[in-house]
Protein 1
Amino acid sequence: MLTRTTIHADGAWRDALSGETREILDPADGLPFAVVAEGGAEDADAAVAAARAAFDSGAWPGTPVAERAALLRRTAGLLVRDREELALLESRDAGKTLAEGRADVDCVADAFRYFADLVLAEGPGRVVDAGSDTVHSVVVHEPVGVCAMITPWNYPLLQASWKIAPALAAGNTFVVKPSEITPLSTVALIALLAEAGLPSGVANLVTGPGHTVGARLAEHPDVDLVSFTGGLTSGVKVAQAAAPGVKKVALELGGKNPNVVFADACRTAEGFDTAVDQALNAAFIHSGQVCSAGSRLIVEESVRERFVAELSRRAARIRLGRGTEDGVECGPLVSLAQLERTEEYVASALAEGAVLRSGGRRPEPSATRPAGGYFHEPTVLDRCHRRMRVIREEVFGPVLTVETFHTEDEAVALANDTEYGLAGAVWTADAARARRVAGRLRHGTVWINDFHPYLPQAEWGGFGKSGVGRELGPSGLAEYRETKHVYQNLAPRPVRWFSG
Ligand code: NAD
């Protein structure tokens, strides 16, 4: 059993002030494999105090940009050094396959490098023409202050890094609270930041539950910004807790993401194979526990039967098992709660008239699938319609629903018929149609003839209830900054507005 001291405040590792601990379960067998500190509101207070003192001392915000960028680059190097160990940790904690875990580490290292390059490329500010030779006016960017970061369990290391890298590049200090069920890779990242030379008090970590640690961070008067990634219900609570303090709030919430396939994309054998293959990937990678999962297939009626038949055939062949085993293509769900939630959505869809084409239940245990693991078969539900719960709500499991359309307008209306707006895709061989449809989709990321890729240089975030603000790209850095106008009068004289 791994026993980790997981609270980090002011440069020192310690246990929870209450002495409480939590067992971390391996979702592949449901058995505990690690023990971490179960922090509480008092631990959050101590960590915020450390972050506040480190910020107010001015040491990190005042560190030259080149030194901050160098630290981010050293961290990227350490992530690459520890790639296998981190991928294994993520696999055991979150149920990912090792290949997924490695890909996450690579993306995280890229994000650290990207934000290092971005701040280095910036000039000293934007000079404004004040219309006078005796005025020098410049707009500059400064760190926000103490940032609270609250992250989910599906991409623990990646989501934490999309916040930590830009926050540090901009000169902030922070307290991060990872999901209580998958804290281990964030603990490892904080240790790497210390190894890279980050001064004490700049990076702080509290492991523990959302309703205590998370809620305290969101409302804490000494926190200047709260950046949250997680579900809609918790996101609303975080925004409400932060509101009285008028803190800056960034929210990355859920999605119900359409994958629109026009018949013309399937005209050639190669086009058909690619569209089916990517629809499979869109829906089932990481067992569908992806905020941008393409969980709604919206396919042109004329190709529906052929498309769904092939998709279902391939879904049934996905090799489910413990993420660390060779040959396994898909791991378990992260928890029993997530498995039961998936089963509930499948049952409700079937009760509402959906037709099961593949999967739909827990698989039999096998050599790579222990009996206690939280596995669910990749599931394809045909003949779905917009009034079903499974179409409207985020399942966050391996469930793909199928809806159909006859016209382009109908396809766009279906794809936009969601309260979310995180990501979506359109598949077509007609370039003009691709651009037209992409322009009409109300989603923060639109893929044309692809699904899932993202770039650290390009903003990530959602329309509607998928969130507020953006991560990655220049906007991802701007989240962690205040903007200041400095107006310097080089020849001050009385203004004589008042005569007396
Ligand atoms: P969750 O909302 O249950 O938990 C997320 C985090 O919030 C956890 O650390 C949790 O402890 C904390 N939390 C819970 N209640 C809180 C409260 N009242 N105050 C403060 N913190 C609280 O989400 P989850 O189940 O861990 O993650 C899955 C969700 O995350 C899905 O909805 C998914 O779409 C979303 N997500 C979004 C993105 C994105 O980029 N938009 C990325 C990954 C995940």
Protein 2
Amino acid sequence: MNFTVLTLFPEMFSALLAGGIVKRAIDRHCISVELINIRDFARDRHRTVDDRPYGGGCGMVMKPEPLTETIRHAKKKHPDAYTLLLTPQGRPFNQRMAQKLAGCAGLILVCGRYEGIDERVREHLVDDELSIGDYVLTGGELAAMVAIDAVSRLIPGTLGSDHSAQEDSFSTGMLEHPQYTRPRSFEGANVPELLLSGDHGAIRQWRRQASLVRTVLRRPDILMDQPLTTGDIEFLKKLQQDIKTIIGKHSTAS
Ligand code: 4G4
């Protein structure tokens, strides 16, 4: 998978490329990241990339010519790539989108600056718009890095063989169960006994149930579009019954 990033601040990406799993994926030729400076496509002697908004108002807008030239250049080099704009107005980015994007031949990521980009560029040269969350950033670069990170780890070979992205939280459609490592006792808090038992069936069930409880409490919204097993339903019913019993005892006591 090739990521081509169009940006006015390519140096920001050294944070992503310097180390960690993304760097390893590049070294292993699982992915490649290409940085193109939009300013290189500015024609005037001041290399201008922005201009004042028509209709007035504060701030500047990325002017269409340099950005268009940059996108055309990237598309010529990667004709099958999918072109994305990172913007607060985009479709909310999630794990499902990351999985879809991981199947693309390549991605061209357009990073806006200032107050955004000229609307005509968005209309004619962008395939999709994506937002990493409901907040405003000074540029699309951090959002692009988030997308590259999330997509990269789904490319085969990127993660070590001991880690499968298929078993992640959100791939299972639920939040991750708690994790523990040594020591067994830390500042008076102990690792759940069952995890030390070596009973893999019981451990698998404990983890599934811990995921269910967490998801019900923290993210009931994502649980709704998730296939639950009859075992899951039985467990949740038991939980509901236990809660009812506790509430019942309290209301008769008061
Ligand atoms: C395009 C239009 C993405 C890009 C306007 C980008 C937040 C996100 C930008 C802007 C971004 C996000 C300057 C508002 C760059 N901010 N939530 N900023 N702005 O994914």
Protein 3
Amino acid sequence: MRKKTVLITGGAGFIGSHMCEKLLAKDYRVICLDNFITGTLINVKPLLEDKNFQLVECNVASYIDIAGKIDYVLHCASLASPNDYLDYPIQTLKVGSLGTHNALGLAKQKKAVFLLFSTSEVYGDPLVHPQVESYWGHVNPIGVRGCYDESKRFAEAITMAYHRMHKLDTKIVRIFNTYGPRMRRNDGRVVPNLICQALNSKPLTIYGKGQQTRSFCYIDDLVDGLIRLMLAKENLPVNLGNPNEFTISQLSRLVLRLTNSKSKIAYKRLPLDDPKQRQPDISKARKCLGWEPVISLEEGLKRTISWFKK
Ligand code: UDP
């Protein structure tokens, strides 16, 4: 039987490279697109020996031209760390808008299933807690995070338009904070920051008073959910994340304990528009995908710490 082909944009990034690896292991052909703005070749280097893996360097916000049959288009490409989208707001807007349009056009041409990697940021600084898919969000369109939040909200809107107008089989995942091996040391997000600071005996930077919350999902759990959604019938957005909610202070204490670090805490200014709380309601994923995370924060952090040590 012919192997199914999956094209993944942003395939050399943190989440993308784990998806490539898992899909190859599940016997798919994988075409990975990346412009290496935040993705790196190192993430996919071991996969280059696999004859079912193809790497194409390109910017999906400009144009996508790929020959041959494609069964699934996964649009994962994006800057995803607040640090990165503050540095590259225009690229962030372009990959979420023009990049999504191009990826949808490709899926339409190839009659492929399309999966948009959206984000919990579409809920902004939420007034509903935990966040359920039916919540429309509380986003500042002109704030510093607006470039990310609004590009993803646009991406969801154009995805639904292609679904309704062109009858494309589209899916939308809203990904909540995810962590694990292959995050960049200088990524800027809280988990790699705190782990690297603890391992290097530097002060752990906590923004604000550390009372803001996040719910952290280990990458392997997320990838399992993403593949289930890719194959599912659901066309409306589905939250994927771990519903266990922690304050950033609690996270910092856990990191200190698991790294045996004596680092102190350095309190820094809270970034503008930083959401105060975030926790996914995953009832829908449980029901339509039979999915829920199984890796605890402690276990996931241990695995991530040992990867950063190497
Ligand atoms: N944060 C922190 N110290 C850091 C990096 C981030 O206290 O070194 C906080 C940040 O202000 C936010 C939370 O940790 O409240 C998660 O930030 P991250 O950048 O990981 O992702 P976000 O969920 O905000 O997109």
Protein 4
Amino acid sequence: MSVTQRIESIYAQILQRNPGETEFHQAVREVLDTLDPVLAKRPELAEAKIIERVSEPERQLIFRVPWSDDSGEVHINRGFRVEFNSALGPYKGGLRFHPSVTLGIVKFLGFEQIFKNALTGMPIGGGKGGSDFDPKNRSDAEIMRFCQSFMTELYRHLGEYTDVPAGDIGVGGREIGYLFGQYKRITNRYESGVLTGKGLGWGGAQARTEATGYGCVLFTAEMLRTRGEDLDGQRVVVSGSGNVAIYAIEKAQQLGATVVTCSDSTGYVVDEKGIDLELLKQIKEVERGRVSDYAERRGAGAHFVTGTGVWEVPCDVALPCATQNELNGADAATLVEHGVKAVAEGANMPTTPEGVRILQGAGVLYGPGKAANAGGVATSALEMQQNASRDSWTFAHTEERLAQIMGHIHRSCHETAERYGRPGNYVVGANIAGFELVAEAMVAQGLI
Ligand code: GLU
């Protein structure tokens, strides 16, 4: 059997064993499509069935999460934790609370996390979790009861050396606080390193909140540098208005770019003068409002547009920072038509496979999420490091470490793509560089 046939048969088995999990299939397909040359060069990895093993989670947990709302009505949600791969360290990855969460979504995220975490060069394995719980319009007390119920089951599977969750969509500082409190209460241990994204006064790391967005922009700057450019004076379109989007906007502005958009599930804002970040933070982080409120309060110059058309706004750089499959083939074609130079993913798998093909085909610099958004989890690993040594670093020091890590990720993607004869292809670079690190550790640790 040729290497290509072998990979196709592995993929066919994955489809058969994981029916209906389309996002998981998509994430696996994208990685498998780049691994031919690795297997061709290293038959020992094929013999050890590394691809088959890496695409089967080490452990998958699904559990009931009962809770009662403020009126006393009982609700039942489903909780998930997929402990995907621990070759490089304890399972590490966020929790997502969103009504769209299914096992397939958690598996796609967990699968991506394995390679993303490897790319950071930090000692962290890959995992992901969450719930189909919808936090929208829930009171703080309801959020707290939900988090406590979720942790009442999950705690037995966690530990600073076992599995270390963090935030993702719908899970931020408030939720991590409630989850940590419940873990501490049940276990009677102040185990700081069991969760990351904690508050600054109780074990959290400086710059963790900013890290995913900042890292994404630093990665973009590195990509632009390979073509002798930087972000100064560039016009940037950002999607999303959550933690990743807000801090991508902040860093892009610091580097001299003008960011003209942000969005949420109802529509997007165009603000030609550049997003007023203080106003956006007030609305999103303090009031938990919508981007339409931003347009209203910002006044002349900014307007709100209903729907998903944010990619129609002309730009030099596009940063999808909202959610999976938010940038499709037609969107990519529009971006290319408008002369986009770089697209870097702050979200996980925001570009569809057709979108990726179009961007790469047009020679656009394209930074896949597992490289471009790895700054968040990398800074989580820095948080674990500080917790383990009972230390706490300054913002400047932590941000400097983040910048070094993003530089390292960019370099290893770039060099790996060159080494495999695909210069400038960051998908090939990220997948192969991440895969090789995980594969080597798996081979060394034997058949487990
Ligand atoms: N949810 C984030 C990600 O997609 C961060 C995970 C973490 O910090 O563990 O990488």
